[in-house]
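Q: How would the structure tokens look for this protein?
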Amino acid sequence: MGAPLSLEQLQQALTENLSNDALYDLLSSYEDEACQQFTPAGITGDATVLTAYYSSFLFSHLIIDEIQEARALTQRIPSTLIQNEPVIQHSIAILRSIYQNKFSETFALLRGQPWPKPVDIVVERVDAYYTEKSFRNISRIYESIRPEVAAEYLGLQNNAELTDILVKRGWDWDAEKELFRPHVPDELVNAGKARPPLDQISRTVGLASV
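A: Here is the predicted structure in token form.
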């Protein structure tokens, strides 16, 4: 690569209209350069740039469902960043909550603090991706679901707006029993399967067992 890894370079990568896979591949290509900016003894490059890079790269794993690979990445992030940088700590906490199927915690972590530029761009992608992923998963798995449970899974508030949102997405509302009847068109359920994730089966089973 020519120019050193920079916030401007990351900003450009994250604002390009790339698919999730293409974004992951692009950020992956920067890792060798990032590794040259630290040693076991400490950071030799710009800690702000490295923090933005590793957070963004970790999040790019999450939007292609490479959870195990994301966990492996945490072993390659400089320990100094993990110990001292809240952005890295929050990013790893989100990975952990996703791995443990803690839906409300995931959305709370994504939305509960300001994210620095340009990391905020990929955080918005992660939020949108997991909102949609949760919607599709529970639409397939549940025949009926209580509003408070649906709200927790989807990171939404349990209020009148929840009913409006989910009915517009194709769910039925049983007012007598106060239950949603999830339904989603097959073409939406089957969308986005071009790249099978390494742990797709285990994640679906994990959701069903919660």
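DSSP finds 13 helices and four strands in the chain.

Residues 7-141 form one domain.

Upvote if useful.
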